[in-house]
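Researcher: For the annotation table, I need structure tokens for Sulfotransferase. Please keep the output clean. Sequence:
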Amino acid sequence: MQDDQLIFMISLPRSGSTLLQKILGGHSDIYTRSEPWLMLHPLYALKTEGIQTRYNAKLAADGVQNFLQELPTEDENYYSSRIRDCYLSLYAPYLNASGKGRFLDKTPRYYEIFDELQKTFPRAKFIILYRNPMAVLASMLETWVKGRYEKLKSYKCDLYEGVEFLQRDFTAYTNTHVVRYEELLLNPEAETEALFNFLQLPNQPDCIEYGRQKGERWMYGDPETVYKKSRPDSQHIDAWHRQLAKPEERKLISDYLHGLGETAFARLGYSFKDAAKVIADADQQNGGSPEGGTSLANLLLSDVELIKQVQHSNAKLRNDIAGYKAQLQNMQQQLEGLEAERGSKQARIEELHGEIGTYEAWLSDRDRQIQSRDEQIQARDIQLNERDAQLQERDLQVRYRDEQLKSRDEQLKARDIQLKERDIQLKERDAQLQERDLQVRHRDEQLKSRDEQLKACVEQIQARDIQLKERDAQLQERDLQVRYRDEQLKSRDEQLKARDEQILARDEQLARRDMAVEARDVLLIEREQKIQASEARLKACDKQIQLLDVQIAERDVELRRGNDDRARLDAELSAFSERLAQSGGELSASRSALVQEQQRVQEFESNLTSVLTATKGLTEHRAYIRPFKKLQAYRGLLSHLNAIRKKHAALLNRLDK
């Protein structure tokens, strides 16, 4: 028997190799039988890796290599030729007994020794059978595993090393032919014809109907499916989709798909996207992708790998525990130091609270003083209202006087014609002047009374001038208006004087009386001007008081905000105290918070000193300040008091000017 009479079929398990073996075995010139597994042992010993046996096959392989290198022969292929002759002699009896010319050795795992087989049997024919890896795994799960997923460890090499072998490019081998399981099922006639042409055998289409042929039932290979059919059935192409209905197996198939990757699928000649879409559709039909469960990678770990993984995890866990213990001790020491520091800070905070209580008592006393001053201002407002009524009455008298002056002008115009009636008019005028003198005396008395009231008001206003300095600009503007009115009144007086001079020119007898009246009018005008100026200042004071009331209301709003901040800081302080009592996992956050609290206490000490210094010069400002304890509220009070201090200094400068 020669090596050109050998046919090797190589594939992954569950790839349809038994079906193809049945078809080829039906040829009149091909003999085959159950998987021989004949060549794995002698040729696998020539490999340098992947060897594992109880007798240490690595040492055995090294020994064989050394033995072959020292053979007293110059033939480099001596071992291969002797192996070829030896195993051909084992194939020959079966072939001779069958009376056929070719022997088909279908052992799927010959992919492990493909190169060694090529070297040992260079003239043999090789058939490489492909099948979708997803279908291969699904068939393993259905036929061999049957829910005992730990059995997948036995097929790890097939699922990965076998697939890696199939990614090779076999076009360089003239004695190798590639067959795809899916194409064999779809078009068996064309595929078998191409196979027989490759084997240089006559085409026998009847081989496709393998079920009609008599044959033995083999030890290895597909135990059920092949024997249930009589010819290839295309329904088996997508049979692996049925396994996707089981969540556990769908997860394993999905893990296998993504473990191989899109590049490997392309090299195998299959579509990664199509397989992924089939799995995604199955997820959607069965309520989503399965969660949990053991991954394919963990199932395929060997016992040695699992032991190493557990040992590595235990060592890492011990190191982590030791590190955590050291960190815990360090954190406990830091916590003790922080607790001691916290005690000292708490004592300091209580001391500061006492100082704040003293300051709040002083503020309460100031509030009472301000309330007393407000009562005085209200009494003054009542007096001012009475004065306004008197001034309105005086305005009526002034208007009446203006009307009299107009009448006098008319009388002067008719004076030349009415000289005869002059004596009578003079008498009447004397009577009017006497009455007017009485009115002027009465008005003088009223003005004296008003002057006294105005003096009291001026004294009160002077006491309030410290608080009303910001209104000086407005008062100056009003002073300009008063001056303008004074100028108008002076112009009017000059006009009256001119008219009086005309009257004196016409009537020398009334000159003295007119001059006296004019002198009294001047005095009245001056007093009216003073009253108007005082009235303007009082109105300005009223507006200033209203502005201060608005400012006080704004300060009350700011203080309410400070109280809200105090409540929030109280909550933060209680949360901070609770965090200090928590486990070591929160210690770093508690330490950071304590450092921040320490900084805030230091800022409070400096700010409180500034507040006490800034408030020594404040005397008359109204402020409703309620108790507060926390740092952020103190900062708001400090900025507020600094603003008041600046305003106070500006008012003092303006008063000095």
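Researcher: And a one-line annotation?
Model: Strands lie at 6-10, 30-32, 102-106, 125-130, 176-180.
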